[in-house]
TrEMBL record:
NCBIfam families for this protein: PRK06482.1
GO molecular function ontology, one term from the record: oxidoreductase activity
Annotated organism of origin: Rugosimonospora africana
Pfam families: adh_short
Protein name: Short-chain dehydrogenase/reductase
InterPro entries: NAD(P)-bd_dom_sf, Sc_DH/Rdtase_CS, SDR_fam, SDR_oxidoreductase
First and last residue of the signal peptide: none
CDD domains: 17beta-HSD-like_SDR_c
């Protein structure tokens, strides 16, 4: 097995921690960033020079560039970048405060874009590499009560669809990872928008009650995704060439995304005649 070097954001907990642990155990080198890098101290003690850590809040663009530059300075090369840092915001669109909206966009959309912009010059200079961006089934499937979260995931997927085309000439490949719910601390760490009473008896209220009112142990069992298996699938995908454009992980994610895409395609096909009818009379058709 060829040893690789990785750069991971959001490595202090959840899936990022599982990834970091797995990679170190198999002998890879990891530049791991986290808002609280002390969470990685046990791994540092165990793996020593295999692991380089630094504090990083992905909403701080200059800090993103410093962390990326530091990782390349430490290891000389990074083969795989995993942009994993993220946060969820639970509530209807109008319930969220302006500050919560800005934070959701900064962490889940602008942050990943800035991570990509920071690593691309290094990947180009070394002749290639791979960027793995954590998205979600929510990048394809709408979730009531998570509309602002969905906006960031739909947005980051649109960014990566175009970015993949821009980077192909340089040997840089990208993969969007779309897991369903997994047994990490994601739900426990959700930002909660202040509730508006009008939504109490709607689907938004039902979702809020499920995610905040259910017994934590019951909720954990109801979520199918195993973060260790998800981490393994992500690592395995980086050995596949060409890189998968998307990696759907979880039975629920597969079923929901399949249904959403079929509905979207059916709606599109129903508008075919209308679409063509708005072309100019002298327009050329491919």
């Amino acid at each position: 097995m060829t040893t690789k070097t990785w750069f991971i954001t959001g490595a202090g907990s959840g899936l990022g921690y599982h990834l970091t642990s797995l990679l170190l155990e198999r002998g890879d080198r990891v530049a791991a960033t986290a808002r609280r890098p002390g969470a990685l101290d046990e791994l540092t003690d165990r793996y020593g020079p295999q692991l380089w850590t630094t504090s990083l809040d992905v909403t701080d663009a200059p800090a993103v560039r410093r962390a990326v530059d530091g990782a390349w300075a430490r290891f000389g090369r990074v083969d795989v970048v995993v942009s994993n840092a993220g946060v969820g915001l639970l509530g209807a669109a109008e319930e969220a405060s302006d500050e919560q909206l800005a934070h959701q966009l900064a962490v889940n959309l602008v942050g990943p874009i800035q991570v990509a912009r920071a690593v691309i010059p290094h990947l180009r200079a070394q002749g290639g590499g791979r960027i793995v961006q954590l998205s979600s089934s929510g990048g394809q499937v709408p979730d009531p009560g998570m509309s602002l979260y969905n906006a960031t995931k739909f947005g980051v997927e649109g960014f990566y669809e175009s970015l993949a085309l821009e980077l192909a000439p340089f040997g840089i490949e990208t993969t969007l990872v779309e897991p369903g719910g997994s047994r990490t601390g994601f739900n426990r760490n959700l930002m909660l928008a202040p509730p508006i009473d009008a939504y109490r008896d709607t689907v938004v209220g039902q979702v809020r009650g499920l995610l905040t009112g259910a017994d934590p142990e019951f909720l954990s069992r109801a979520i199918a995704g195993d973060p260790a298996k998800i981490a393994r699938a992500i690592v395995d995908s980086t050995g596949v060439s060409p890189a998968p454009k998307r990696l759907v992980l979880g039975g629920g994610a597969y079923e929901q995304i399949t249904a959403a895409l079929r509905d979207r395609l059916a709606a599109l096909e129903a508008q075919r005649e209308l679409a063509y009818s708005t072309d100019a009379d002298d327009a050329r058709r491919s």
